[in-house]
Amino acid sequence: MDFIFIDKNSEYYKRAVDLRISLFFSGMDNAKELINDTYENKSQHIVCINDKEVVGTGRLSIEKNQGIISQMAIKKEFQEKGIGSKILSKLLDECSRLELDRIRLSARKTAIDFYTKFGFQEYGDYYESEKTRVIHQNMSK
Residue 67 forms beta bridges with which residues? Predict the structure, then answer.
């Protein structure tokens, strides 16, 4: 498996978007609008490629010298194989390289333990995502 940073012109970008839509916004009429939020065009995107197929993706946005990790998605049959950990590690390495002051993310309630293993700490209360209605928790390090 290969882990590579891509831009929006990459052949893998559309496949990464399709993966994100299938896992986060399936069946929603406005899925493409939800993907194209204020961060999409100015973010760094990473993908995991297995036999020319995008099986995982993540996104790093930068705002006021803070990293914002989002849109972490792993194809269901590839979950629990370390792909998410590798993607997150590469995003965190990029944050270190850029010498960012803080890194934050919004974790699904079911993923809090995963991010805690990487040193993220919860802050604030649980909240319902405006996009998906799934319960999330803000975290940072």
Answer: 62, 103
Q: Which amino acid is at 135?
A: I
Domain count, the chain: 1
With tokens 């974790």, the residue in question is 107
112 part of a folded domain: no
**Is residue 16, in this structure, part of any structural domain at all?**
yes
Model confidence pLDDT, tens digit, residues 114-136: 999 999 999 999 988 877 888 99
Helix (H) or strand (E) holding 83: helix 83-97
Instruction: Kindly report the length of the chain.
Output: 141
**Can you read off the two tokens belonging to residue 136?**
């999330």
Instruction: Enter the pTM of the model.
Output: 0.92
| Sheet of strand 102-108, all strands in order from the earlier edge strand to the far edge | 2-6, 44-50, 53-63, 66-74, 102-108, 135-140, 121-128
Q: Report the alpha-carbon distance of residue 29 to residue 60 in Å, rounded.
A: 25
Q: Answer whether residue 122 is part of any domain.
A: no
